[in-house]
Amino acid sequence: MLSPLFIDTFLLDYHLGHVLLLAFVASLLGVLPLKSQKVIAAVIVSFGLIFSMSPFTTMPATYILLGIGLVIVGPLLWTTADS
After folding, report:
1. Which of 1, 2, 32, 64 has the fewest CB atoms within 10 Å of its CB?
2. How far is C-alpha 51 from the geometric centre of its chain's CA atoms?
């Protein structure tokens, strides 16, 4: 069994930005089999909002800028999608 100290030292290397990025990639991979550009755009916009609204003290500013970019790119994908 792993000791709590080992788990703690492993988790100290990561922050909220890493967790949100992993969830974003996993959700994109999850909706790819649907082959719907609108669903992909909705996931991109929702994670863009999550990235941009998350607390600034829990992750670097790079992830917040990523969120702003995703909020801009998501509606563009939505409008260019077929019905």
Report:
1. 1
2. 7
Enter the DSSP assignment of 40.
H
Q: What is the pLDDT along the chain (83 residues), one digit of tens a residue?
A: 778 888 788 788 888 899 999 999 999 999 999 999 999 999 999 999 999 999 988 889 999 999 999 999 999 999 999 86
Task: Read off the tokens for 6.
Answer: 């080992």
Query: What are φ and ψ of residue 36, in 5° steps?
Result: -115, 120
pTM of the model: 0.85
Collapsing DSSP states into helix, strand and coil, what is residue 13?
coil
CA-wise closest residue to 73 among 45, 53, 54: 45
Q: Which of the 8 DSSP states describes residue 52?
A: H
